[in-house]
Amino acid sequence: MSIDNIISQAVANAVKELYGVDANPETIQPQTTKKEFEGNLTIVVFPWVKAARKSPEAVGKEIGDWLVDNEPAVSRYNVIKGFLNIVIEPSFWSSILNHIATTPNYGLTQPDDASPLVMVEYSSPNTNKPLHLGHVRNNLLGYSLSEILKACGNKVVKTNIVNDRGIHICKSMLAWKKWGNGATPESTGKKGDHLIGDFYVLFDKHYKAELEDLQSKGMTKEEAEAASPLMSEARAMLRAWEAKDPEVRKLWETMNSWVYAGFDATYKRMGVNFDKIYYESETYLEGKEKVLEGLEKGLMYRKEDGSVWADLTPDGLDHKLLLRSDGTSVYMTQDIGTAKLRYQDFPIDKMIYVVGNEQNYHFQVLSLLLDRLGFKWGKDLVHFSYGMVELPEGKMKSREGTVVDADDLMDEMVNTARAVSAELGKLDGCTPEEIDSITETIGLGALKYFLLKVDPRKNMTFNPKESIDFNGNTGPFIQYTYARIKSVLRKAAESGMTIGEYATAQPQEREIILIQRLADFPNVVKEAGANYSPALIANYVYELVKEYNQFYHDCSILKEEDATLRSLRLALSEVTAHVIKTGMGLLGITVPERM
After folding, report:
1. Distance (Å, whole) CA 103 – CA 96
2. For residue 570, what are the domain limits?
3. What is the per-residue pLDDT for 398?
4. Is 31 a member of any domain?
5. How many other β-carbons are positioned within 10 Å of the β-carbon of residue 16?
6. Strand order in the sheet with 350-356
7. Angle at Cα 72 formed by Cα 70 and Cα 73, nearest 5°?
8. Residue 429: its pLDDT value, please?
9. Could you say which of 39, 58, 88 is where a domain stops?
10. Cβ distance 362 to 381 under 8 Å?
11. What distance in Å separates the CA atoms of residue 306 and residue 577, rounded to the nearest whole number?
């Protein structure tokens, strides 16, 4: 049992005995005492003032006296207005540390057969371009959220929906046919997703030139767009694809296979994966079928032009188009089809969509439609809505080729990590293989941590140079501290020092602060899961690392002559390293044993 739980239960017992109040221990949440006051944990006593018919100070004193007399963990207390600050018996912290050290998978809750099944959708790329910086934030948030939900005792299925059909795909295909000269990833030496992305940009370049030419001949912009031969060809290709034209389908399959090979390499390097991948080309017809089924049941309606709509005005929204007049589907229809297939494949209890905040309205509508169509989790689906990520230079645009590709970004991060590490002398004595491994770990750790430490709901600017700093709230700072702890533990082992009995050790202030921080970890994991916030884990680990560095500065470890106290400090170092590794693992970040 954690120290928080012990105190919560003791306070519940106190108010029952003192005031006859039945208090649920789970509603009594001790907070870490503010630094300006003496104490380790603080209890707010206002909830019991009315029943006690006494002042908050008097209630605090009575509960404090009861705790000192009846709870061995409590040494003394002080009361500031309605806040009871409790000092925990120093020797008790040793038992808390031992509990943490001997608890398998400390801070994590293992799922069982009764655990709910949560499906998390993330990534959702288009097959006409490589993954870019925006996808990086999406993938990292989705993967980390999945790991955190698992750590909270849920069964989790990680899923991806690939947008592999539509006019944007045909633009790349048409550009390849016209100007590709049979180019392949092998013939060009390019990753398949980058090669296809080049053709998407090339289409836009020719299309813009065509529009300018038409406008120079007196057409308006709208007239030029309607008359564009290039766009007409792209639309014709889409119709041919819908009609399953063998030649168009063969080209589509070939070019998509190049893109998937590229995506797989990027995902692998990024350290993310999926349990199941769905494809829009396989789900859009399912969605169409489900909408027509809803139409038959009177859940949707058809307009005179043949288009199918849903009336959402009773729910405070408007009318939503689901099938165009020519019978083709929209994105919403595809999402309904994907939901149908997923529900057939898995007994989902909760569905979480990791999608940017520009799609907030889309998911409001999807939730209502899925509920109307009978999906039990429809009404409670979660849109994990995150903010946009930009570079210091500003926004990125795929069509214009100004997007920062994920692969190029990872290369840049690793190269920057190599340069900064070499400059600081952190690679001295390392073999070339070790340097490659360490700089890959630092570079990708810096990227992931920088993107995940920010509240996901906020827009953010990613600055590569700021992210690789061995001081401050960065991935490399945390990784370096972990490597430092492992170095201390190796030196201890080499000197024959083992972690012996430390139950009788009297921890000092700096050690108590660190143990208390470690004791917070399970609650932080639960809070991160409840709030869908990897940022809570990231910032917890940073605060833990700061506390360890202060402890390392103030307290001798290997040179401590008192064997019991030295054992305590070694155990504290070992447990801190374990929690850092676990916490960073929930963010998808690896930590190096040497650095």
Report:
1. 11
2. 448-586
3. 43
4. yes
5. 12
6. 276-279, 155-162, 117-121, 350-356, 382-386
7. 120
8. 83
9. 88
10. no
11. 64
Residue 399 reports pLDDT greater than 50: no
In a domain, 478, yes or no: yes
DSSP one-letter string for 102-161: TSTTTT-B---TTSPEEEEE----BTTS--BHHHHHHHHHHHHHHHHHHHBT-EEEEEEE
Query: What is the sign, positive or negative, of the torsion defined by CA atoms of 562, 568, 569, 570?
Result: positive
Number of domains in the chain: 2
pLDDT tens readout for residues 194-217: 999 999 999 999 999 999 999 999
Residue 346: name the closest of 110, 118, 113, 148 by CA: 118
Spatial contact of 142 and 122, defined as CB atoms under 8 Å apart: yes
- In the block, tokens 């600050």 appear at 85
Work out the pLDDT band at 471, boundaries 50, 70, 90: confident
In a domain, 167, yes or no: no
Specify if 156 maps to a domain.
no
- For residue 380 the two structure tokens come to 């409670």
CATH number at residue 29: 3.30.1360.70
> What pTM was computed for the model?
0.91
The one-character DSSP state at 315 is G
Rounded to 5 degrees, φ, ψ at 142 are -65, -45
Is the pLDDT at 238 greater than 70, yes or no? yes
Cα atoms in the Cβ-side hemisphere of radius 13 Å centred on 281: 17
Q: How confident is the model at residue 424 (pLDDT cuts 50, 70, 90)?
A: confident
Q: How many CA atoms lie within 13 A of 14 on its CB side?
A: 25
How many residues can be counted in the chain?
595
Closest CA to 552 of 478, 470, 474, 481: 481
Q: Supply the pLDDT for residue 504.
A: 85
Q: How far apart are CA 396 and CA 307, in angstroms?
A: 35
